[in-house]
UniProtKB/TrEMBL annotation:
It comes from Candidatus Faecalibacterium faecipullorum. Residues 2-158 form the Calcineurin-like phosphoesterase domain. GO terms for molecular function: hydrolase activity. InterPro entries: Calcineurin-like_PHP, Metallo-depent_PP-like. This is Metallophosphoesterase.
Length: 230
């Protein structure tokens, strides 16, 4: 079983909720950015990661804007699940931008990152990092992987979203950025079944193929009898 959810912001409540109690060994939970457990590297944060490490399932997370990119960039990079990941614990991995993961016979194009709307009020290297926005190399890595897969995946998973999906957020004029534009390009290039994204703290189905996630937990792949599809 693979489940997907939105921003967790360093809180354990989602992981303690009934929606995840049925997940066991061999199952996977994917968090669509703003994981929030890589922020200050302190003792309390490490204790929360240790608690997550005791879950029987694997946790994969995209980066959002509320991550400490100095800490993330210091982690080793491994080839696992068909793409590039960075391990935090034996069962907790950050998914590098542009990776296409292969899980339970399904393919997932994963691309984290976003732009903090309040970045001018934040302190670089303290509570804001320029690395929240992707690099040229990360865009190129994603392009190469998409081409190698024939521009076909079952799922596109992102933190932010294409600008064409964002009317519901009532973005201010001119608020679109390079990442939005890049995702707009991907919409035209990719053949996908579902595009799921987080970032906007809403649980909203925009179309049969597009969904914004926050607290909802969406199962994909092989269903278990105990699971009621949301």
């Amino acid at each position: 079983m693979i489940c997907i959810t939105g921003d967790t912001h360093g809180g354990l409540e989602r992981f303690k909720g009934k929606q995840l109690r049925g997940l066991g060994k061999g199952d996977v939970l994917i968090v669509l950015g703003d994981f929030g457990f890589v922020w200050d590297g302190g003792r309390e944060e490490q204790a929360r990661l240790d608690w997550l490490a005791k879950r029987p399932y694997t946790i994969l997370f995209l980066d959002g804007t509320h991550e400490n990119f100095d800490l993330l960039d210091a982690l080793p990079v491994e080839e696992r699940f068909g793409g590039r990941v960075q391990p935090l614990r034996e069962n907790i991995f950050h998914v590098c931008r542009g990776s296409i993961l292969e899980l339970e016979g399904l393919s997932f194009l994963c691309f984290g990152g976003g732009e903090s709307p309040d970045k001018d009020d934040r302190d670089p290297g303290v509570n804001w990092w320029p690395r929240e926005m992707p690099s040229d190399e990360e865009y190129a890595f994603c392009d190469a992987n998409a081409a190698a897969h024939g521009y076909r995946v079952q799922y596109v998973l992102t933190h932010d979203a294409p600008s064409r999906f964002l009317d519901f957020t009532i973005l201010p004029a001119g608020a679109n950025n390079r990442l939005h534009a890049y995702f707009d390009k991907l919409v035209g290039q990719m053949n996908y079944d579902q595009w799921l994204f987080g970032c906007y703290h809403r649980d909203t189905r925009l179309s049969p193929k597009v969904r914004c996630l926050f607290e909802d937990v969406v199962p994909v792949g092989e269903r278990k009898k105990w699971w009621k599809h949301l």
